[in-house]
Amino acid sequence: MSLPQILIIDDEADIRALLELTLGRMNIETRSAGDVASAFALLEEYRFDLCLTDMRLPDGDGLDIVRHIEEHHRGLPVAVITAHGSMETAIAALKGGAFDFVCKPLNINELRTLVRSALNLSKQAPSDGSNAAAKLLGDSQAMKGVRALIGRLARGQAPVYITGESGTGKELAARLIHDLGPRAGRPFVAVNCGAIPEQLMESEFFGHKKGSFTGAFNDKDGLFKTASGGTLFLDEVGDLPVPMQVKLLRAIQEKAVRPVGSQQEVGVDVRILSATHKNLHDLVRTGTFRQDLYYRLNVIELMIPPLRERVEDIPVLAAHLAAKLSTGRRPLPLTPEAQAALKKYAFPGNVRELENIMERALTLCEGDEIDTADLGLPGQTGLPMAEEAAQGPVLFEGTDYTGEQSLDEHLAQVERAAIEKALRDTHQNKTAAARELGITFRALRYKLEKLGIE
After folding, report:
1. Using CA atoms, how far apart are residues 423 and 363, in angstroms rounded to an integer?
2. Is the peptide bond before 105 cis (omega within 30 degrees of 0)?
3. pLDDT digits over 241-263, tens only?
4. Domain range list for the chain
5. Residue range 426-432: average pLDDT?
6. Which fold has domain 308-392?
7. Which of 44, 140, 258, 427 could form a disulfide with 310 if both were Cys (CB 3.0 to 4.6 A apart)?
8. Does the predicted TM-score (pTM) go above 0.85?
9. Confidence check: pLDDT of 69 > 90
10. Which CATH superfamily is domain 5-123 in?
11. What CATH code is assigned to 130-303?
């Protein structure tokens, strides 16, 4: 069995010698180049499993190497070596398609970790998108584009910022990026940043030492340590308070954390994926989110489209959810009329709301098919919605659509009024309110958090 082959590109002979010695001890064969032209020649003549390139070269820079490999040797991982503190340069390389980066002065353990991860990636067959297609359903052009980008993102280590409305499947996309990449066999740790009390955040993220504060009866590994070697998914990252943003930025840049009560930093190797339904750019503009952390997280952006922008996917998703929720019995098909009704609905809660609707429909359906009436969508009395409104009193005061709001804002207002009424009617019993609304308790809890209802 042939040994792995790595191309080293650096104009400093002592750096090349150090890398050759280190990689040789890892039972890896190397070839070296001191400039861009020599590197291009070696790339044409030999097959490599990884390319390590310095950013500053006599006849160009590492970005030239990254672009050349991306164009002519797609699938070959390339990692760049940058000067310590040159984070902008490293980010530019990651945006260009680099697998990862390592800083000078070289940390040998960090370098070995990077090399193992890259070689593991080289052994993997390029994804044909089938795994992503099986989980992110839909034949719309929007979803085909999302799946193709996920396949590419999975082959790198760059931080990915996943945007999209609530319920679109941001965590599912993050899991796919992890599962399709070289870290698949390592932990995937997801955390909702808005669900951690501010006073416990540092301990939750970085861990703590026994006795470091009241109640710290034992040493505890934080989320970074738990996810080490794998992926840390920061959901609702826009909810982080500014003091925690500073500490998070340092942990990401230094690849190390300091547990509460400890005097020493602990090295961690995690890939950071983040998501939020908020507009982080707006939060940066208002000063509630640090710009430097924003640029560190938003190296590559992945946008998950709302369900109303991929209407053609709704029947497939509905059928899939009906089969998934029909535990122990034959899944019920949807009538053409029910499918048409779903296509006309705006879905402010996206796929998560569709799942709630299908769960309710399966519970209420008494026939062999799910019909329009079983869905319980707004405007389903058999009359046009405008005519229906004229037939009876307004259910919730202050929710008439005036045209001054966006549709999303209006639907959120209607949803808030419905939930508040259900809570009043049930004397704040959330379980009973969820039952009255025809949704699961978990869905109600999510909506209470999303809408800020106490």
Report:
1. 22
2. yes
3. 999 999 999 999 888 999 888 88
4. 5-123, 130-303, 308-392, 396-454
5. 81
6. Helicase, Ruva Protein; domain 3 (1.10.8)
7. 140
8. no
9. yes
10. Response regulator (3.40.50.2300)
11. 3.40.50.300
